[in-house]
Each structure stands twice: as structure tokens, then as C-alpha cells.
Amino acid sequence: MNKKMIVISLGGSLIVPEEIDWKFLKQFKKIIEGKIKKGFRFIIVTGGGMTARKYIEASAKVGDIDAEDKDWVGIHSTRLNAHFIRTIFKKYAHPTICTNPYDLEGFLKAKEYILVAAGYRPGNSTDYISILLAKHFEIKKVANLSNIDYVYDKDPKKYKDAKKIKEICWIDFQKIVGNKWDPGSNVPFDPVASKLAAKENIEVAIFNGKKLKNLQNYLDGKRFIGTVIK
Ligand code: UTP
User: Fold this and answer.
1) Does residue 207 contact residue 143 with C-beta atoms inside 8 Å?
2) Less CB within 10 Å around the terminal CB: N or C of the chain?
3) What is the mean pLDDT of residues 174-185?
4) C-alpha angle 71/88/221, rounded to 5°?
5) Ligand 1 near 46 CB (within 6 A)
6) Cα(96)–Cα(22) distance, rounded to whole angstroms?
7) Contact 191 CB / ligand 1 (< 6 Å)
8) pLDDT at site 56
9) Does 184 score more than 60 pLDDT?
10) How many CA atoms lie within 13 A of 188 on its CB side?
11) Ligand 1 in contact with 48 (CB < 6 A)?
């Protein structure tokens, strides 16, 4: 088991909430650098965020595009964000972005402190990619950083009585998110990725990455605010 390597799925909502959040990224970089100095290595999987959403919406207004085209626009947004993150961490990062989680030869041999990965094909998500990479690198913990504090048992925007979840097993989590990939849905963790995580016995922590003290606590193995799925 790879204890000094951590997979971070860096939600696009943190990189580009509306505009590029360089202030957040500056702090995020400091925290990651601190852990690198202690010998940790990272796989950072970047999401698409508002860039993906804006491009998808705009392309649908201009042309008659199908779900697969929309996914591709989303994928390229995750890749743009990946190149951006790699550039920010240039001193530590492997020069190539992983865009195919089934072709990991170069990546598995890489010696750099940071490996950056992005979207692969339509019908996937960066959640799934983060779990696949964890599997191949024999990493048992994945941090899913977004802008929500907890996972709820139902959509808190729609239901006043939604309850926050601090810890849940994969079987119960799958009852909440279902078991099929739905491109339009906004679930806290992709159902297909959940299935693989359950099979591989991988623990996923979902928390608000914007709260940097919380991120620091998670990385230090201390108590943090968020949801653990295992
Ligand atoms: P994300 O995985 O970032 O989804 O990919 P998201 O939930 O919208 O963004 P976050 O969590 O805020 O970062 C953005 C879009 O790119 C496509 C999907 O359409 C997805 O909604 N995508 C991504 C793929 O089709 N395949 C992939 O492997 C990754």
C-alpha cells in the first residue's frame, strides 16, 4: 500500500468557481508544498468547473450538439485546468498530463512529486479517474475536494430536512446516488466511481477544499469537517 501518496480530486468548482480563483490556488499550493517537503507525493485530478459548464452551455446555444459532444467539451475543460495546475506546480510536476487512465506506463514510472490527470472519454467523470488511479497506484484514500461541506442524504437545496452525513458505507451511499452514470446529474460522487471504490476498498473523503485549514487537517491525518465514505 502506498501510504505517502495521496490522490486529490480537485473539483473544477475550486479552480474556476466563476473566474479562476488564483487566491485559493496560491494557498492550496503552499499546503501541498508543505507536504512535499515531508516526503508526500500527490496525484491531482482536475475537474472542469465553470469553464466546462460555460462551454457546454454556449455550444448548445450555437449548434445542435449531442451529449457526447458536450462531454468532450467538458473533458477539454478538465484538460485545460490540468495544464494550468501542472504549470503552477512546474517545479514538482511530471511534464505530461494523464489523459488515459488505461495507459499508465509512463505515469507509474514517474519520479516527480506531483502527477496531474484530467478527463478521459465521454461517459466518465474525474471521480472515476481518481479511483482508477488510486487502484493502479495502490492508494487506499482519495480526497474529493469541492465546495460542499458534507454529503447529505438528499439534496439540501430542495429538502429542508436533508441530513448531513459524516460517515457512510459504500452500500448505503450507492442507495443515495444510484448506480448509473447520468451526464447531467449533480451527485456528490459519481455512481460508477462509487462502484469501483467499493470493490477496491478505497475510502473517499468529500469535503470543502476552500476551507484550507480543513484540507491541512485532512492531509495531516487530523480530524476534519466532511463526509467519509468507506
Ligand atoms: P468534471 O468531472 O469536472 O465534472 O467534468 P463536474 O462535476 O461538472 O465538475 P467539478 O466536480 O465541479 O469539477 C466536467 C465534465 O466533463 C465531462 C463530463 O461532461 C463532465 O460533466 N467529462 C469529464 C467526461 O465526459 N469524461 C471524463 O473523463 C471527465
Assistant:
1) yes
2) N
3) 77
4) 90
5) no
6) 22
7) no
8) 92
9) no
10) 30
11) yes
